[in-house]
Specification:
2 domains; 8 helices; 2% strand; Muramoyl-pentapeptide Carboxypeptidase, domain 1; two-stranded antiparallel ribbon; 2 strands; mainly alpha; single chain; 248 residues
Amino acid sequence: MNRLQSESGSSTPAPERSRTALLLRTGTWIVLAVSLMGPAWWAWTQEPVAAERAVGFLATFPLFLIAFDLWTLAIAHFWRPVRSPLRVPARTPIVLAFLHAGLWLCMRYLLAPEVFDRSGTAVGGEGDVAIRWGIALLFGLLWMVGTVALFFEVRLLRWVLISEDTAVVEEKPEEAEEGSDMPAGPEHTYEVQTILSRLGYETGPVDGDLNEATRDALRKFQADAGLEPTGEVTMLTVIELRNRWGER
């Protein structure tokens, strides 16, 4: 089915899928799966008790996430999208790799018997373990920080790959008949915010959420481009944004 289609039958052809973006997206899910399964495998093979396996999984989780950071860094360094202006900032996976390494070191420190266990008995040793629940809470918060950072990284990489996979830059909005516009998916919001901000429009935070500041920026751009100023992310708006960016 065509991407843009009016009642009269005029349409803008759907974009040809980028094979490179498809391969990178598939590789991303594989690396992500390995990064998530690695800590579980390590904990299962190293720890004999279920509780210790759970702690071991949480403690090694940030370390295995560095593999995903390196994958993202490789994409940022070696891959240059040809259709979309979006790029993966190289500094993002570098910062996240240091963050995950720091979280891993902090969590190892918190698991030391003299820190985690009030009695000083190592986990798995003889005697009762008097857990410092404040330390356990801090341990859990550090794990959550690593998880949120991973979610942000996956989301950013997905936005960039989808942008390359769906980009159509050769079609001009004026070539489509009136009424042929249609809403674009939410995966385009981050791209729209990025291009609008680089073109000088105030979008507010570039976070992939269609906030009111982004809607105002969209209305201003749509009016400047001769489009209906709805403040919504539409396919004609996305196409015109990509064309304006490509003309810079």
